[in-house]
Write a structure and sequence with these properties.
single chain; Alpha-Beta Plaits; 8 helices; 4 strands
C-alpha cells in the first residue's frame, strides 16, 4: 500500500519545487556561453588560415589539423545549442525540459572527433608511403599559433568540464587540438632542420591515434548516459546501503538511478517502512543527503507499509 510519495526536483526544475539544500558533483549553474562564442570565433578564423597555409606548404599535418578544428567548431556549436536548450523550463508536454539534449551533444561531438581522427590516421599512412616536400617553417609558425588559440578556448571551458559531460567532450576536443598543433609545430621545426619530410605524416598519425583513445573514452561515457546507465562515479550498492540504513526502513526495492542530462541525476525508489514517518522531514533530509553524497538532485521516493499483496508489479525488473 502506497502511503507517501515524495518528489525532490532540485534547482532549476519544475515550478513549485523547493530549492535544493546543496550541490553535488553533477550539478552545474553555468554552461560557458561566452566561452562557446569565443571558441567558435577564434577557431573559425584559424581554420581559414590553416587551410591556406596547409595548401601552400603542402602539409598533411596542417590540413589534418584544419579538419580536426572544423569538427571542433561544429562540436562547439552543437554543444552551445544543447546547453541553451537544457536551460529551458519544463512544460506540460516535456516534463523534464530539454536536459537530455546535452547528452546527445556529447555523443555527437565525441563520435565526430573519433571519425575525424580515423580519417587523419588513414591519410597519414598514405602520406608515409609517399612523402612529399613540406615547408617546415610555415608549418611550425601556423601550428604554434594554433596552440595558443586552442589552449585559450580550453581554458575558457575548464571550469565546467568536471560537472558537465557536454562541456568535457568539447574541452577534450580543444585540448586535443592544442596537443595536435604543438606536435605539428615541432614536426615543422624538425622538417626545417633535417629535411625529413616524412616527419609531417608520422606526427599526424601518432597524435591521431592518441586522440582517438581519449575520444573513445568520452564516447563510451556518452553512450552510457544516452542508454540511462547509472552515471559514472555513483555506486548503486552505496546508494541502496544509504537508503536501507535510514531509520525505520525494512526494505528497498525498485531502485533506479539515471541521468536526466549531463548535469542532473534522477532516482526513484520504494522504501518499505512498517511505521511511515509522520512528516516530510525524513524525506527532505534523505534528499539532501542523496544530493550531497551522490549529486542526485531529482528524486521520487515512495514509502510503503509492506502489508499489501505484493508491491510494485514490475519489482522483478529492478535493475540495480
Amino acid at each position: 500500500m502506497s502511503l507517501l510519495h515524495a518528489h525532490d526536483h532540485g534547482r532549476d526544475h519544475a515550478p513549485g519545487s523547493e530549492p535544493a539544500q546543496g550541490h553535488g558533483p553533477a550539478h552545474s549553474h553555468g554552461h560557458g556561453g561566452s566561452a562557446f562564442a569565443w571558441g567558435i570565433g577564434l577557431n573559425a578564423i584559424y581554420i581559414v588560415v590553416e587551410l591556406g597555409a596547409g595548401w601552400y606548404a603542402d602539409s598533411l599535418a596542417l590540413l589534418s589539423d584544419a579538419l580536426h578544428n572544423l569538427s571542433d567548431v561544429v562540436a562547439l556549436g552543437v554543444a552551445w545549442f544543447a546547453a541553451t536548450l537544457a536551460r529551458r523550463k519544463p512544460s506540460a508536454h516535456r516534463t523534464y525540459g530539454f536536459t537530455r539534449a546535452t547528452i546527445l551533444s556529447a555523443l555527437f561531438s565525441s563520435a565526430l572527433l573519433c571519425a575525424a581522427m580515423g580519417v587523419i590516421a588513414w591519410e597519414s599512412l598514405h602520406r608515409l608511403l609517399d612523402p612529399r616536400p613540406v615547408d617546415g617553417g610555415v608549418v611550425a609558425l601556423v601550428a604554434a599559433f594554433g596552440v595558443l588559440i586552442n589552449t585559450a578556448t580550453a581554458l575558457f571551458l575548464a571550469k565546467e568540464r568536471e560537472r558537465d559531460l557536454n562541456i568535457r567532450s568539447v574541452w577534450l576536443n580543444m585540448m586535443a587540438d592544442a596537443g595536435l598543433s604543438a606536435l605539428v609545430a615541432l614536426a615543422g621545426v624538425a622538417i626545417a632542420l633535417t629535411g625529413w619530410h616524412s616527419i609531417d605524416a608520422a606526427a599526424s598519425f601518432v597524435l591521431a591515434l592518441a586522440i582517438l583513445v581519449l575520444a573513445a573514452s568520452v564516447l563510451r561515457d556518452a553512450l552510457n548516459l544516452a542508454t540511462d546507465a547509472v552515471p559514472r562515479g555513483i555506486d548503486p550498492a552505496e546508494v541502496r546501503e544509504l537508503l536501507t540504513a535510514q531509520p525505520g526502513v525494512r526494505e528497498v526495492h525498485d531502485l533506479h538511478i539515471w541521468p536526466l542530462g549531463t548535469t542532473h541525476i534522477a532516482l526513484t525508489a520504494h522504501l518499505v517502512m512498517p511505521e511511515p514517518p509522520a512528516s516530510d522531514t525524513f524525506l527532505r533530509e534523505l534528499n539532501a543527503e542523496l544530493l550531497m553524497r551522490f549529486g542526485i538532485d531529482h528524486t521520487a521516493i515512495q514509502v510503503e507499509r509492506g502489508d499489501g499483496p505484493g508491491g510494485c508489479p514490475d519489482a522483478a525488473a529492478d535493475r540495480i
